[in-house]
Design brief:
One of its GO terms (cellular component) is mitochondrion. This is MSTO1 protein. The protein is of the alpha+beta class and 221 residues long. The protein is built from 8 helices and 7 strands. The longest helix is centred in the C-terminal third of the chain and has 16 residues.
Amino acid sequence: MMHLAETLTFCGRKVVAAWASLPFPVLRGSSLPDALCAYPQALPWKLLSPCRERKVGRCFAQSVVLRGICKERKQPASPLHACESTEQTLQHYLHTLFPGTFSTSHVLEQPCHTLPPYPHFFSPLLTRQGFLLDKPPRYSSAAVESVGVLAALQSSPVLHTLLYGLYKDLQKVNTRRWASFFSAGVEQDDFQEALEELRTLSQCYEMGFEADESEDEADSD
C-alpha cells in the first residue's frame, strides 16, 4: 500500500484518499457500461477517508481496481459500450470524469468471495452473486456468496481540508499541559517544525479558488 501511494504522489504530496464501492452497483443482467452510464456526473463509489467530498474531476492521480464485473457483448449504445474490453471501458470512463489526470486501472475477473466468516450485512436486494435486483424478492434469498468490488486510491484536493483541519486542531493544543508528551523525547521546536510541515503538506493539495475557500472555512471553525 505504501509503495502504491508513492507512485500516486508528487509535487510534495504524501497522502492519498481511499474510495470503494462494495458491492459495485450492477443490476442483474446488466453490463459494466450499463452501470457506468448510470453515473455520468457522479462516482459509483464512496469516499472512505474522513474528508469532505468535492465535485468530480478534481484529482491529481489515481489507481482504480475493479473485480468481479465482466463486459458483456451488446450493440454499442454509447462510447462505453463500444469499448472492446472491460479494461478499456473502465479507462474510458476514468478519462471522461477525470480529464488530464494520471489514472491507472486494473481489472480482475474473480469477484470478492463473501462466504463465512464474512459478515452478512448486505441488502436483500442483492443476489447470491452480488448483483442488484429491481425489487425485493418474494422469499428470503440465500446469503450473498460473492460481490463485485471497485476500490480506488486518489491523490486528490479533498485531502487539503483534512490536512489543514488537522493542522489547525494541533495548533490549538496547549503543549504546556502535556509535559509527559515532551518528556518522552519530543522537543518543542520539533513539534512546531512538524506543524509547519503539516501545513505545507496541506497546501500541496490546494487547487485554485476552491482551495482558498476551504481554508477560509477551516479558519472560521
